[in-house]
Write a structure and sequence with these properties.
Blueprint: H1 2-12, H2 17-20, H3 24-28, H4 32-47, H5 62-65, H6 67-78, E1 108-116, H7 129-148, E2 155-158, H8 169-177, H9 189-193, E3 205-208, E4 214-218, E5 224-232, H10 235-250, E6 258-259, E7 263-264, E8 276-283, H11 298-303, E9 306-310, E10 323-328, H12 336-355
Antiparallel strand pairs: 1-5, 1-8, 2-3, 3-4, 4-5, 6-7, 8-10, 9-10
This protein binds arginine.
Length: 357
């Protein structure tokens, strides 16, 4: 029985939010069709009991349809009480110069991404191979406009077998090693159980601008992962670059799925709101014991509203010299501009802690 299995997880893995908030009466009150739909949303957290969230939306309207249940997971994860309303505002209120914290931060690796999903396709977990290919083709038409625009230029590369944009496996691995392209998602048990990595590598690809500072991933955890990156020190510039570029692609007729309360719809409830993850790489050798222990930093970072991960992405260790990836944890009920300020302030506080002692 589904409920029994979930109650077992509730006891063994109290951190699993899917299980923590599961309500058998609510589930049993749904029609068989909706029960089947909700099961697909939570199956990742059932088969991966160590999940933190344990759920991925399968369709943009899942957050409305299953609101009485999913709202609890969302509020718990994001720490939100009271009225939910997501307002977009990219104003970071002036210059955020990392070099003003310390001269040695003047060539920092900065990256800001947003997850976006189109309202006219199922979310990645519920897409068929045909959907994935049709979606990729619809994006190729948009990328042609970017490529023709001298502000962007660049190219589109595809992993879809037989695509006219297809690259070799070696070229793909090279792009992954350079942190430009995403990894083979089918190795991720959370994503694969949810169906998000199904049909790999069909419909997967990447647009990259001529200056390599603007990238759009196609067919990862969200339909689109849109990001700006740069090595330098002016954080606000990277945010502005992303904002202007997003406006440009939206003007090509893309309609991003959005909800009044939860903001931009993302596959994972952890990304709702801005859909944004803004990060920078910073060397904290003392706080991480020269990179051997990133976990040491986590409680410290948490107090400051920051998340830390290894320099190689989610679930990786710190890089040489204790380089970690630092990002504000808040995504929902926070504006894009506030995230920019939080990242700057967070870097400043972490830097000060590193210098102490
Ligand atoms: N599904 C995983 C869990 O519930 C990952 C959640 C956050 N990470 C992500 N890439 N969405 O623990």
């Amino acid at each position: 029985m589904l409920s029994e299995q979930i109650f077992r997880i509730q006891h063994q893995h109290p951190e699993n939010l899917m299980a923590r908030h599961f309500d058998a009466a609510y589930f049993n009150g749904l029609s068989p069709e909706l029960q089947a739909r909700l099961t697909r949303v939570i199956i990742t957290g059932m088969q991966n009991p160590d999940s933190q969230m344990g759920a991925y939306a399968m369709n943009p309207d899942d957050y409305d349809l299953f609101q009485p249940y999913l709202d609890k997971l969302i509020r718990d994860y994001h720490g939100i009480e009271g009225e939910l309303k997501q307002i977009s505002n990219w104003d970071s209120d002036g210059t955020l110069d990392l070099a003003s914290i310390d001269e040695s931060l003047s060539n920092s690796s900065m990256r800001v991404r947003v997850g976006r999903n189109l309202s006219n396709f199922p979310l990645p977990g519920a897409m068929t191979r045909d959907h994935r290919i049709a979606f990729e083709n619809s994006m190729i038409a948009v990328f042609k406009k970017l490529i023709a625009n001298p502000d962007f230029g660049g190219s589109y590369i595809s992993l879809t077998p037989g695509s006219s944009h297809e690259i070799s496996h070696e070229q793909y691995l090279q792009l992954v090693a350079e942190h430009k392209m995403f990894k083979d998602m089918s190795a991720d048990p959370y994503l694969s159980v949810a169906g998000i990595s199904s049909d790999w590598p069909y419909g997967r690809g990447m647009y990259i601008s001529a200056d390599e500072q603007f990238i759009i991933w196609v067919g990862e955890e969200d339909h689109l992962r849109i990001m700006a990156m740069k090595c330098g020190c002016l954080l606000n510039e990277v945010f502005d670059h992303l904002h202007v570029s997003l406006d440009f692609i939206e003007a090509q007729g893309l309609v991003f799925a959005r909800s009044e309360a939860y903001g931009y719809v993302t596959s994972c409830p952890t990304n709702l709101g801005t859909g944004m993850r803004a990060s920078l790489h910073i060397a904290l050798p003392r706080l991480t014991q020269n990179g051997s222990n990133v976990d040491l930093l986590k409680p410290v970072a948490k107090k400051l509203g920051l998340s830390v991960r290894g320099a190689g992405g989610e679930h990786t260790a710190a890089g040489a010299g204790g380089i970690v990836d630092l990002s504000p944890s808040a995504r929902l009920m926070v504006s894009e501009g506030e995230i920019a300020r939080k990242l700057y302030q967070g870097a400043k506080q972490m830097w000060a802690l590193e210098q102490q002692g």
